Amino acid sequence: MVESLIKKFKETYGESGDIRTYFAPGRVNLIGEHTDYNGGHVFPCALTIGTYGIARKREDGKLRFYSENFSELGIIESDLEDLVPSKEADWTNYPKGVMWAFEKRGFKLSSGLDILIYGNIPNGSGLSSSASLEVLTGVILKDLFGFDVSMVDIALIGQYSENNFNGCNCGIMDQFASAMGKKDNAIFLDTNTLEYEYAPVVLKDAKIVIINSKVKHSLVDSAYNDRRNECETALLELQKVVDIQTLGDLTEEEYEAHKDAIKSEIRQKRAKHAVYENQRAIKAVAALKENDVETFGKLMNASHISLRDDYEVSCEEIDILVDLAWEIEGVVGSRITGGGFGGCTVSIVKNGAVDYFIETIGEKYKEKVGHEAEFYVVDIGDGARNLDV
């Protein structure tokens, strides 16, 4: 694939110069959803699907972007003097945002770039195509300009650009997973301190199966930012009666003891999810370390119920997929993954049930909603990197 992308790059931009290749993965979060901006724990892993980038420096300040995924848009041109978000910039607002964020940190881009992108993450699926593109851009800039930044820095810069350039108030999880992924491991990350550990995902006789509902969502939608604002208000109300910095500081018992300080039933539900989901993530990782995959699966199921009922970020199509999964023998656990309002489910399925799982859910889902779902039996891969090394 990389060879064909290099060929396309040369056809698009010409053959001269130092042409380099890069990759940044998408991610799936196994448990710990909507906790990353509430000071809680998350448990994502990088995938082997993601975003490829071919890039080289230019002699001038011009920026030229081309995506195989949006070939109908052709080459989108910009300039280092024009690092501002715009409707015309379309998908290039993501790499431009990262360039803007690097410059805000004092890393001056000394020349423009020619960049070709190809992603094999389904767009709008909730597997972090945007974070993958941001981290990819960070790795390109670090490599081509020799910037002294760590992979954690690149994750933080990607998050900052999405928050402040693209207007989505996302947490750190997606960028961190893409930047810091490790093959066959998930990342147990405390989003409040950025302390993390790699936890081997040893499923023995089971596979991770992702189902794309083919219902697209955009995280810049107001509903995502609404949830964040509701949690921030609930935190301020709780801080009047208990000494905490984040919702992730509370145990379930502490939340129940102080929840009446939250003066809205909706905000109580949002805060309850944040607190209980954080504790579920902690328990799930402990279960995995004990090779107790059954308990891990039960916690995944409870996570979905909370995201559906308390956080209200699911939707009819996703609930159908999860309900169908729960009916199948050999499904250890199943839940919505990602920001919500569409996107994907993640399930742990015993090896012997995988084919039946895909066939049965595929048929019944199409029957119920009128369009097909997409299935991916995924492997856990490494984080973003230069492919030339």
Provide keyphrases for this structure.
6-stranded mixed sheet; 40% helix; Alpha-Beta Plaits; alpha+beta; Ribosomal Protein S5, domain 2; 389 residues; 4-stranded antiparallel sheet
In short:
This protein has helices spanning 2-13, 93-104, 129-145, 151-164, 173-180, 222-238, 252-258, 265-289, 293-309, 316-326, 354-369; strands at 20-29, 41-42, 44-57, 62-67, 76-79, 113-119, 185-190, 196-200, 206-212, 331-337, 344-350, 374-378, 385-386. It is of the alpha+beta class.
Structure description:
The protein has a six-stranded mixed β-sheet with strand order 5-4-6-3-1-13, with helices on both faces. The protein has a four-stranded antiparallel β-sheet with strand order 10-11-9-12. The mean pLDDT is 95. It is built from eleven helices and 13 strands. The relative contact order is 0.17. The protein folds into two domains: 2-201 and 382-386, Ribosomal Protein S5, domain 2 (2-Layer Sandwich); 206-377, GHMP kinase, C-terminal domain (Alpha-Beta Plaits). It has 389 residues and is α+β, with helices and mostly antiparallel strands. A hairpin with a 5-residue loop joins strand 7 (185-190) and strand 8 (196-200). The two termini are 17 Å apart. Helix 2 packs across helix 3, helix 3 (129-145) packs across helix 4 and helix 3 (129-145) packs across helix 5 (173-180). The protein has helices at residues 2-13, 93-104, 129-145, 151-164, 173-180, 222-238, 252-258, 265-289, 293-309, 316-326, 354-369, and strands at 20-29, 41-42, 44-57, 62-67, 76-79, 113-119, 185-190, 196-200, 206-212, 331-337, 344-350, 374-378, 385-386. Helix content is 40%, strand content 21%.
